[in-house]
UniProtKB/TrEMBL annotation:
Protein name per its UniProtKB record: Oxidase
Protein's UniProt keywords contain Lyase: no
SUPFAM superfamilies: FAD-binding/transporter-associated domain-like (SSF56176)
Keywords carried by this UniProt record: FAD, Flavoprotein, Oxidoreductase
All residue ranges annotated as the FAD-binding PCMH-type domain in the record: 45-218
Organism per entry: Podospora comata
One Pfam family of this chain: BBE
InterPro entries the UniProt entry points to: BBE, FAD-bd_PCMH, FAD-bd_PCMH-like_sf, FAD-bd_PCMH_sub2, FAD-linked_Oxidoreductase, Oxid_FAD_bind_N, Oxy_OxRdtase_FAD_BS
């Protein structure tokens, strides 16, 4: 166990839970604390938890929560550690981070095809285990290093989401440790209000130890489209974006197709994933709406090959490795999407700006489809009506003011051009610069969340800078 400079009451309590187990906990001030224990993802966001603990059982988590409660310290679970603002480490100094690395359980019920998955599994592991145990699959994002614990509790959007919904739409039941230290089950029939909140806002409500999720047979065929254009000027790319946006916002678009548009310093990339055969893809008519010149090509894959291809492409612009970066995001309803003239103005603006880095990306990510089928108030996830997200990244060693100004300026341009609206953003793409973050993340679901928070965690034990606060009575 790591040793801090002094033995605080919190430390003593956690050491009591550890009961001489090695590698159970480390405390602020321990040697190699940041590198071996905290492991922040965004190196531009310094954060020092009071302790990082690696429990082995739900009972350990319960005991650690009691230690944090007794010492007035905040708590955050950490599963894959891929929060843009290091929320798994607390997001601000002094929290207890509960690292779920030992929660790697996986089993498949071959009658119901429900999988039971430990919260510490990362998405790449989930895919491999589901494939091995019956050729099953669920919807989620593209980065294999993201943790199921932080992903399926906030949303979980990926190329198959237009077809199957978000990752959290697959959750049937969870085991969760709540602020009073109790180990509970939550589902549509047990602790229903908590279950509702955990699907979209779990960081403020408990530590999930395992998920029970419904699964689908994995599609046998995957067609991947990729188009790269290196014009060097974003203004020249704007018409391409407008055309792509019109395709992706069409309510009748075949749900087996998911796609992203990525601006990068040399031009743009369009990636698309279609779950079906090449013949089926051709009959959808989608290829006719995508750029046809020699810059595009198709790759034919099976399910696992398709996932690996998406992950590899993503790693070109957004690595699973820790780095310093600044990022912003915003979500658009169909009626708020920018028209061609405004798109041209924004892309022109990008050309005129100093970036301060060669590593910047602006990703437009299409949603809609099956995500839209579910009512806005069915879970805490509040972006059912959003058909497009933008996310920006400016990476630097360190991130300079010029880069920060560019990323902020881009956001301001979009907001200004879009005019007054209620876009909000997906809390999985943390945008800590938003005014009234919680309202922007949970929108019309926020008042109910604040009530449920007051019931289950009135002292706001589970806390990060963007999490739900209890309603004040
Ligand atoms: C490289 C990269 C690619 C990404 N791609 C996508 C994508 O394609 N689609 C998408 O939707 N999102 C994507 N994201 C965003 C990602 O889904 C969120 O950042 C997610 O919250 C990360 O989960 P984590 O477990 O890895 O992170 P952590 O930092 O461990 O946790 C993030 C938050 O979730 C909470 N949490 C974690 N585990 C639990 C648990 N067991 N119980 C309760 N709360 C918990 C933490 O307390 C913290 O507040 C991406 C992020 C990165 C860095």
């Amino acid at each position: 166990m790591g040793q801090g400079p002094s033995t605080s009451a919190l430390q003593q309590c956690i050491q009591g839970v550890a009961n001489n187990r090695a590698n159970f906990a480390a405390f602020a001030g321990s040697p190699l604390y940041q590198i071996q224990w905290v492991k922040p993802y965004n190196l531009d966001v310094p954060v020092e938890p009071a302790a990082v603990v690696r429990p082995e059982t739900a009972q350990d988590i319960s005991d650690i929560i009691k230690c944090a409660n007794a010492n007035g310290v905040k708590v955050q679970a950490k599963s894959g550690g891929h929060s843009y603002q290091n929320y798994g480490a607390g997001g601000s100094d002094g929290a207890v981070a509960i690292d779920m690395v030992n929660f790697q359980k996986f089993s498949m019920d071959t009658k119901t095809w429900y999988a039971t998955i430990g919260a510490g599994n990362r998405l790449g592991e989930v895919d491999k285990k589901m494939h091995a145990q019956g050729g099953r699959a669920m919807a989620h994002g593209v980065c294999p290093g993201v943790g199921l614990g932080g992903h399926a509790t906030i949303g979980g959007l990926g190329p198959m989401s237009r077809m199957w919904g978000s990752a959290l739409d697959h959750i049937v039941e969870v085991e969760v440790v709540t602020a009073d230290g109790k180990i509970q089950r939550a589902s549509a029939t047990q602790n229903e209000d908590l279950f509702w909140a955990l699907r979209g806002s779990a960081s403020g409500f408990g530590v999930i130890t395992e998920f029970v999720v419904r699964t689908h047979p994995e599609p046998a065929n995957v067609v991947q489209y990729e188009y790269t254009i290196k014009l060097g000027k974003q203004a020249d790319v704007a018409p391409l974006y407008s055309k792509w946006q019109a395709l992706m916002a069409d309510p009748k678009l075949d749900r087996r197709f998911g796609s992203m548009f990525i601006m990068f310093p040399l031009g743009a990339i369009i990636t698309g994933t279609f779950y079906g055969t090449q013949e089926e893809f051709l009959t959808t008519g989608i290829p006719n709406a995508l750029p046809q010149d020699g810059n595009g090509h198709l790759v034919i894959n099976d399910w696992l090959g398709g996932l690996a291809h998406d992950a590899e492409k993503e790693a070109l612009y957004l690595s699973g490795l820790a780095m310093p970066f600044v990022s912003r995001s915003l979500a658009f309803k169909r009626q708020d999407l920018l028209g061609p003239e405004k798109i041209k103005d924004i892309f022109n603006w990008v050309d005129t700006q100093k970036k301060g880095t060669l590593l910047w990306f602006i990703i437009f990510d299409a949603a809609g489809g099956a995500i839209e089928d579910i009512p806005q108030n069915a879970t805490a996830f509040a972006h059912r009506d959003k058909v497009m997200y933008y996310q920006s990244y400016g990476i630097g060693l360190p991130v300079t003011k010029t880069t920060k100004d560019f990323i902020t300026g881009f956001h301001d341009q979009v907001v200004q051009k879009a005019g007054p609206g209620t876009w909000g953003t997906y809390p999985g793409y943390v945008n800590n610069a938003l005014v009234d973050q919680q309202k922007q993340y949970w929108d019309s679901n926020l008042p109910a969340l604040e009530q449920i928070k007051a019931r289950w965690d009135p002292k706001d034990l589970f806390h990060n800078p963007g999490s739900v606060r209890p309603v004040k009575n």
